[in-house]
């Protein structure tokens, strides 16, 4: 069943409306909560006319810093990175200070959503304003250099002697690239439903991490984690904005406690832009220096970005550059300043998707100066080991990806001189880039229960953010136990289940898939043990090694067969339960001694078509080939690749969050913030090498989610250069930049 292109098990429920999302759970007596956000970037609230709003029809209460519950602050530094991961360690409504536009400053509670929205829009707030730090370029003059990213990787790294190697080099490229701020825009906005029953709290929340969200709620309300149940059965996408824990998830339970009624807190699309992170704008300075033959001898990547006053997110654009190619002399710096913007957070391929736009553009510029083919330049600088720490990659087949991708695309037909390929009056350009993303794996646990009907229920506190987690976990469990996947029932999205990892860092399939696989193997051994020792069993007294389970049947080499549930029935128990867990694998755990570097790779080839007069860009085709271990479900995998590639397309051509001089976002809706529609996307071809990586996970898969978004923006920019001779170093590449 591993490798089968099964349709998603939740598909019928989703298309029929039967899959309930957070805010769809009916509760007759719930109040609606709408957040009031600060309109200023810095200062103090001096007055709030809550009385007038409370007199409005349907409005029952306004909660504000004067009457809010005091919650327990996070431990300094935000807490244990794995057990307690808030997007920012800030708790709203605790005082009158304002640190950014959009900060939550009050909650309006009403009997209907419309009454709450109207009330929130009418609340008059008086501020004492202070000058806010909003100049993103200020970081070029004044910055700090943090030691580590939240994965433990070092953000500042030097090897060899970059300066000297650069001075001795024959060809040098030195350029600056900019990727603007972006917002995640998952289809389903976030929201929270909170219900108190005495000392117990149930929270429905649209999150990429039920376990982390449960822990954060429990911490801030000073509760035992087992008294909080966090549920997220279905999630309409996250892309990172639902990865860590955000303050609005505290406000619903706070309001519900104050009102002694369930509260349904709804974030609007506008609220989403400032309430749960964004990709911060990044300025990147890249230097690549090589000899005449394209051996890159020196590289430098300096990342300039910002974090907020309230939280520390360090967009890590240079991490990939430091390890992707075998460059002996390298300098990587990450520099940030603190500004009065909402806290940034990871967004699909954080650092990788925007960082490789810069790196892969610079490589294309170097190839041009050398008169060398861009694919050949990358192959020449192949790294078999991670140059940062010298650890060999568990597997790095990026050269196979280049070659296979080039063949599929027809790269040999490319004219390397810009502006030379024409078709139907349009300029055609071909460009390529490397895709890469780390392979992460976190620990967790599962409970597997086999009942008297032969149905296996697998429970773990992970969640399906729309990627197909229900389906692939079922395939893995069925495969390991030896039963049809129709006999497996996957139960996730509930923090009461054994602990599971975040759906972040593209790691849930490798992490949870591994312990579900070993758990199912354990259950299989348990069943065989029982079968040979149950006196009424047809297998009684047989050698364990001669028994196996296939298609739901326990069978011996001698030809005896029976359904596995017979073992459960003879056991005299309602069900047989097995638990299993895995810790973080050696080599990934922060600060542990590692044996291998784990990384996935790919190559993206793009054809663009540009209207020379109008600058209109279309992308007729994209071909990508990936090396990321074994594929559990090719159908769902393709969906992930397509989604990622479209994300990269969007970064290249459409997306930018625009702030005005007051720090307000002016395009905070899907009319003004552009994302692609079906009509924008043409041919996408994806191939996977598919060789299992058993050094990394039990099933040999490394994870998919984010890598599809990596490399695409660089490949598109390179193709546009090949079409037009114009090198655009600021995203998005809009037609005004080409005219
Ligand atoms: Mo992701 S940006 O790790 O949800």
Structure commentary:
There is one protein chain. With 739 residues, the protein is of the alpha+beta class. The chain is 25% helix and 24% strand. The protein is built from 17 helices and 27 strands. The protein has a seven-stranded mixed β-sheet with strand order 3-5-1-12-9-10-11, with helices on both faces. A five-stranded mixed β-sheet has the order 7-15-14-13-8, sandwiched between helices. It has a five-stranded mixed β-sheet with strand order 16-17-25-26-27, sandwiched between helices. α15 packs across α16. It is globular. The mean pLDDT is 96. The site of dioxothiomolybdenum(VI) ion (MOS) has 11 residues, from loops.
What descriptive keywords fit this protein?
739 residues; alpha+beta; Aldehyde Oxidoreductase, domain 4; 3 domains; 25% helix; globular; binds dioxothiomolybdenum(VI) ion
Topology, number of strands: 27
Low-confidence stretches are: none
Principal-axes shape call:
globular
Distance linking N and C termini: 52 Å
With strands numbered from the N-terminus, the spatial order across the biggest sheet is: 3-5-1-12-9-10-11
In the CATH hierarchy, what is the architecture of the largest domain at level 2? Answer: 2-Layer Sandwich
Helix content: 10-25%
Query: Could you say what the CATH topology of the largest domain is called?
Result: Aldehyde Oxidoreductase, domain 4
Q: Mind summarizing the main beta sheet?
A: 7 strands, mixed
Specify the CATH homologous superfamily of the largest domain.
Aldehyde oxidase/xanthine dehydrogenase, molybdopterin binding domain
Structural class: alpha+beta
Q: Average pLDDT, to the nearest integer?
A: 96
Q: Nearest-angstrom radius of gyration? A: 27 Å
Bound molecules: dioxothiomolybdenum(VI) ion
